[in-house]
């Protein structure tokens, strides 16, 4: 009975899903639209700051290589200060050459990190150039080739427009895929909670409460049916938006990324269920609860980097967003691997348990007050 009523009320409130769908399509068009990328790329001198943590011959060679192409300033600043200078256009990229640069290359570890905007062709080609340099340098180390020969090889490569177009397109496709699924996660999260709030409001109507009291099912059985119905509704909403997203990003889906990302979106919708249950335990006023949902979802999305590149977000805001589930979805999109997927699942499990227990605590506290 409970399950059947829950699904009936969901169908009655389908208009909220349709409204979310319209918002979703508008957001996808805004955030994934870009100008034609077929224009010829012209190498540009960029204002770059480099922090050399290694202070070795190899790291110095990289700095000299970049100085030949860009305006390079050497300094050691915090990530927060680097973000500030990026926003103020004082620099276009902040590069950190990690300590033990050579060993990191040999052991296939991260030797260089770069903090920069992600949606400009100049930065994309800078990343490609850095990747080429690191690959050639590693090959030179393994073959005992002099570093100057490596530089000569790099400087006499075939025209960058010919060999790097595919790499540029791959980087652009990855960005498009990440933006699509970041927006998808936000819409799924907000829609799932909104539907749960509206259904819960219907359930609290006196007529339905009386019918539930006459039900032959125990309180525990009714709660389980309600929980199962919420999971099915979350799966339906997620499947609907996921199908649209896959269609929209069909030409930019990286290999081996779709499976893990799709499962991650479903798991994220379960996190939304737990938060939805927490919110309905706070107030009986559906307008108040929906307002809290909208504010929480929007703040979470902005602070986690869904609508605004995380490189430009102050470190204090990023630290704040780590207490919200969306942050871990966006971080997962940066590097979609099995290990990162497991970390994402673990983070969502913590949030689900926390929000569920907090909701139970608030309900019990209110019942004691009434008693």
Description:
This protein is mainly alpha-helical. It has helices at 2-12, 14-32, 57-67, 79-87, 101-106, 121-142, 147-155, 160-163, 165-203, 206-213, 219-248, 258-282, 286-304, 315-321, 325-334, 338-370, and strands spanning 47-52, 71-74, 93-97, 112-115. It has a 4-stranded mixed β-sheet, sandwiched between helices. The two termini are 28 Å apart.
Explain the layout of strands and helices.
Elements: H1 2-12, H2 14-32, E1 47-52, H3 57-67, E2 71-74, H4 79-87, E3 93-97, H5 101-106, E4 112-115, H6 121-142, H7 147-155, H8 160-163, H9 165-203, H10 206-213, H11 219-248, H12 258-282, H13 286-304, H14 315-321, H15 325-334, H16 338-370
Parallel strand pairs: 1-2, 1-3
Antiparallel strand pairs: 3-4
Helix pairs in contact: 1-11, 2-9, 6-7, 6-9, 9-11, 9-12, 9-13, 9-15, 11-12, 12-13, 12-15, 12-16, 13-15, 15-16
